[in-house]
Amino acid sequence: MEAMSDGRGDIADTLGGFRWMFDVGEKSNANRTRSQKFLDSCQPTGGGGCDFLHCTSIISQIGMATNGNSNGAPPEPHKMFDTILVLDFGSQYTHLITRRLRELNVYSEMLPCTQKLADLEWKPKGVILSGGPYSVYAPDAPHVDPEVFNLDVPILGICYGLQEIAWHNGKGVAAGEKREYGRVTLQVQRHSGKAAHIDRLFEGLEDGFEVWASHGDKLSSMPEGFSTIATSTNAPYAGIAHETKNLYGIQFHPEVTHTPKGKQVIENFAVKICGAETNWTMGKFVEQEVKRIRALVGEKGQVIGAVSGGVDSTVAAKLLQEAIGDRFHAVFVDNGVMRLNEAKEVEETLTKGLNVNLTVVDASKLFLGRLNGVSDPETKRKIIGNTFIDIFEEKAKEIAEAQENTARAGKIEWFLQGTLYPDVIESISFKGPSATIKTHHNVGGLPEKMDLKLIEPLRELFKDEVRKLGTELGIPEDLVWRHPFPGPGIAIRIIGEVTPDRIRIAQEADKIWISEIKEAGFYREISQAYAAVLGVKSVAVVGDQRLHGEIIHLRAVQTTDFMTANVFTGAPMEWFAKVSDRIANEVQGVARVVYETTSKPPATIELE
């Protein structure tokens, strides 16, 4: 049984396609499938949030085709690359196993622990059983398909996964007298006189090293045919290996950064034990994905998609441009609540810099008119989302009608959506008793009458891989490493009513804040930063006059996965004072500036 930390939650990413519009760097309900999440989209949750639009329920009714292999398209990655299959038992860390493998250039996919092996059309090079919040001996405990142990491939069990291996080989799991949570020292036991494979998991590592443990149960007896390969203070069987099979179990988490040598343990398993090739690179991905897109779309097929100027939608757009050129139609909708000069910068980057076929729609007056007098954050999201859908649908029809009169291309029948692998994980992961921290602000709605099929070129990738892909495609570094920006934009960085003056103040303050961060060399250290307007007035003195002005709220956090985040404290107070002085003096209407020091949890990264 894995001990749960208070910071459990889902991975953060920024989505493309229709979904980019409502992304804020926080993820959605981990206890629902994506379709169910859309159906429940506007029902308030215990956390006070909701997914974006009531119209998002439409996605579940459409049954749009996605990313299928047809027209001679290249096979899926797990059929082309040596793949380590990660079976998820509901651990908050499972996605990190897949990420660490990808970082080693070993392709990996995650499936729920309930996956039936008979339904797989491919054979993995090895299998990792994740941790989980259950007790393996409980009546309702999840168990892996027994056929996993008949695959004749190496298997590594992590925490609950170790206990699952022991349970399958004769039980021997019980509640520990003392829970082991946090940093512990692992003592490796070598077996030079036995089969060589037994010591391979910890090959190249010292006999004692620090690991991160998170469990309440432990092995009470050694399963028959296994040897102890590691111990810790409270776990006499912290590592086990079968004496004749490539079957291993460890009672710690090698996938987390708190286990400094954990990545080498994972590499030993994947490369030295499983024999997986380290050939998963973005260069090879581009080559295969361009072929796949061309095969799916055909010689005259066309694709339409929304772009935001963010990393994901830009990378997806450039990938489509590489594959089919001007037959990809990108649409950028200026909603009036974006960063300062955002529309102009996005247009220049995509058209002049990346040769993307882009249509820009300035709908700022329409958005701001509908937002007039609205203070409730959920209502603001819905207004922005509904308006965006209306505008995009209208513009898509215009583009489609214009293309019908040309002989060079067919009709638009594909819609680009920037789904990332964390979204896939969310929809397929084993749903344990993890709490929903905050629902995700996204939209997946598409009017049924548009009758479009989905194309999702980034669905196999994590965020860090998207950045690498962007670099591979020649996208400028400053764009590849751009911080996430919420789909509802500055509207949810203004507490209360969204007015033109508050938008101006938020934009100008944010511009100064980000420019100072970049100038000081902190931008890559910080994962997300922004300036917000708190919506309450404060007294200040400007010259000889009394000012009743706005309070600017500055936020900067550091995180690797957006599940948890620490406040940025890497600058001296003098630097923060300098930034504060600039904003107070240069942005008209600002009375004072504050810096938030709350980590996540308890606070979310965005204010609303």
UniProtKB/TrEMBL annotation:
Keywords, alphabetical: ATP-binding, Glutamine amidotransferase, GMP biosynthesis, Ligase, Nucleotide-binding, Purine biosynthesis
Class in the EC hierarchy, top level: ligase
Reaction(s) the record says it catalyses: XMP + L-glutamine + ATP + H2O = GMP + L-glutamate + AMP + diphosphate + 2 H(+)
Pfam family, one: GATase
Pathway: Purine metabolism; GMP biosynthesis; GMP from XMP (L-Gln route): step 1/1
Binding-site list for ATP: 308-314
Protein localization: Cytoplasm, Cytosol
InterPro entries: Class_I_gatase-like, GATASE, GMP_synth_C, GMP_synth_GATase, GMP_synthase, GMPS_ATP_PPase_dom, NAD/GMP_synthase, Rossmann-like_a/b/a_fold
Domain GMPS ATP-PPase as annotated: residue spans: 280-482
Any one GO molecular function term: ATP binding
GO cellular component terms given for this protein: cytosol
Annotated EC: 6.3.5.2
Record CDD domains: GATase1_GMP_Synthase, GMP_synthase_C
Signal peptide boundaries: none
Domain of life: Eukaryota
Main location per the UniProt record: cytoplasm
Subunit structure: Homodimer.
General function of this protein: Catalyzes the conversion of xanthine monophosphate (XMP) to GMP in the presence of glutamine and ATP through an adenyl-XMP intermediate.
Annotated HAMAP family: GMP_synthase (MF_00344)
Protein name as annotated: GMP synthase [glutamine-hydrolyzing]
Species for this entry: Zymoseptoria tritici ST99CH_1A5
